Amino acid sequence: MTDALLTGANASTEVPLKRRLRRAERTRQVKALALVLPLLLFLLFTFAGPIAGMLWRAVDDREVRQVLPQTIAALANWDGRDLPDEKAFAALASDILAARATGTIAIAAKRLNYALNGFRTILTSTSRNLKAQPEPGTARETLGKINPAWRERTTWTTIKDASGPMTGFYLLAALDLTRNVDGAIVAASPDQAIYRDVFARTFLISLSVTALCLILGFPVAYLLATLPPGRSNLLMIFVLLPFWTSLLVRTCAWIVLLQSKGVVNDSLHWLGIIDEPLRLIYNRFGVCVAMTHVLLPFMILPLYSGMKAISPAYMRAAASLGAPPVTAFLRIYLPQTLPGIGAGSLLVFILALGYYITPALVGGAADQMISYFIALYTTETANWGLASALGAVLLLATVLLALVYGKLVQGQQVTGGMKN
Amino acid sequence: MSDHSSLRTPSQRIAWTATIVISTLVFIFLIAPILAIMPLSFSSGSYLTYPLPGLSLRWYDDFINSPRWMNSLKNSMIIGVASTLLSMVLGTLAALGLAQWKSRFKPLVLAFVLSPVVVPGVITAVGLYFFFAPIGLTGSYLGLILAHTALATPFVVITVGATLQSFDTNLARAAASLGASPLYAFRRVILPLILPGLASGALFAFATSFDEVVIVLFMAGPEQRTLPREMFSGIRENISPTITAAAVILTTVSVILLATLEGLRRRNERLKGSSA
Asked: Which residues cross the membrane (chain B) (predicted)?
């Protein structure tokens, strides 16, 4: 329409009109952006900001710096090969006396204890037994007498490592790594190295649940996509009702069904299949069953919409060209469902990775996933650095998978458009 | 494909039968737990086992007379309604803006707006816990409403955005050319047409807040406990049949939401059908 106007207009009015149109378009764009802006600002405050804050906490390390400032300054040029010099000992004694007066010893003790088990005792015993600032030149001897740990190099490298203001300590710990006395990255001691196991377990549970959802969801999606709309809409209620039912209700229902005196065990007993009740809940089995139940609709719905877009003409064509049904299914139908399978599986896997409530309620101690530990370190033990570092790893995994998912779904929309 | 008498070969018939059998089992798997828990709430006994010793409404009575449960229901409603309203305003404005905005940054902005759905609940909850505690927003209704709004708004943006995609912008142009102010055109022309989309968005937003428990676990004080939060501690401690009564109440709310949504969808399809 603009083109028609432009060709109709003479050369002198052409430019202003073009400019006017461009200006009008620019105002429209600014107005459009102004409409989106409130939500962006809101999400910055209630979502992006908090998550950025959490990521920052994963590397933030200022507790020891605040409590032992003189010691940190005295250790700044220490090479870490031998014990530090007398000046550092004197600075430490002075810091401890100052921190005792303000009651902040515990803050540093907590942080240092994460890095070296027993550091809390070293610091508190020193604080308790240090009467006054030692005479010049005797600080090393005095502290060594109060606690022999001050004669160990490790004690001092631990303080230096924790001198902040930023640290890789928590992120390394989240991957079962630590720095040794010489500053090299090494495997953490076995009693602290639990997170790789937890990540592997989280991955394994998510993978099993995804596989179960795919196996159970595929036939259902196929049925729903193949039936006439009236009947498939009716059956869709069986998928949508659980989808809309509260997670807590469904988890509670599984406990009622699977507990030792629950419906399943009672029925099996009544049928004479078992004598003793089976252990079906508060273990891995219960977690997988309940999670599959919760996440199955997230598999069925993308599969269904993918299959719905496959024209039955392809299968008829394959049949008319003499392909046996199994071949036609495997070679013609199945490949076309692959984008749907990919989207559904990724979605279920992403959602499963971050699961907290269901494993917490129906799992045993050995079935807790990474989210459980993040919650535990946040609210129970207040090891916020480690909680944030574990959160950062989980977030990274989720974001990467979500990007793949985005590409996959986008590609699907494009091909879907082309088919039409 | 819809006519199954056309399945000629025996192997096709077997495959189809297998599909039906497996699907039926999966449907039972999906629905049975929800159905199994319901009758237990009407039991006269205090054990969660079948057969029921008798029927009674004592657990509903227990629910209604328990200040703890009733308070949690009230909290769920307050937080649900408030965050629905807030997310409707923010989400609808953003969807209207995004529909008009042309920029290469648009996919990035859209991804950002939708990201609260994908990020694991625990991460959002921990972040908010650290962020809101120093400014006094933990243990407050406002903090929970803001957090739930962040989680619910993506659903509003998606549903309203989808409605706007099928909206004929010529109608807005026609209104403008007839002298309607942008606000008047929005109120009298655009709003009535996108209302079903708005309603679906509101239902999604309410359901999101009503079902949310992880953020509530981290941020709510004893005063702000919601119904799912109360169920969480109930399941942890000991499952009394009062929980099954709470479950039935929650499920009833879900069914009402789902039925309304389905009604809206059907109405929308009918309208589309009649205009075509």
From this structure: 14-38, 77-96, 108-132, 144-164, 193-219, 239-261
